[in-house]
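User: hey, got a sec? need 4-formylbenzenesulfonate dehydrogenase TsaC1/TsaC2 folded
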Amino acid sequence: MDYKNLFSLKGKTALITGGARGLGKAMAEALAQSGSNIVIADMDVVSAEKTADELSLFGGKTLGLKVDVTNEKQVKEMVNRIVSEFTELNVVINNAGICQKITVEE
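Assistant: Yep! Here you go:
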């Protein structure tokens, strides 16, 4: 789907945790198409950087970071880096999480 005509976030900066793949990546792509700069924070830094590189094709500045959102120090460092490199943070999508497949009985 092409989101660029739906709304404009040109010049805004969006952070997507767990954004390297799946639903997080899809949301990041929609924001990139809308003109946002994109920060992908994920435990898998290789995938985060790859996704950020792919999204740079939409014209905004991108950054892929290794971040464990359960680690307060890493989260603070991430926010400081975003503000340093992008000046501000306008959109945050807290998508990071773990899915455990267990039976109903468990």
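Quick note: Residues 72-86 form the longest helix (15 residues). Let me know if you need anything else on 4-formylbenzenesulfonate dehydrogenase TsaC1/TsaC2.
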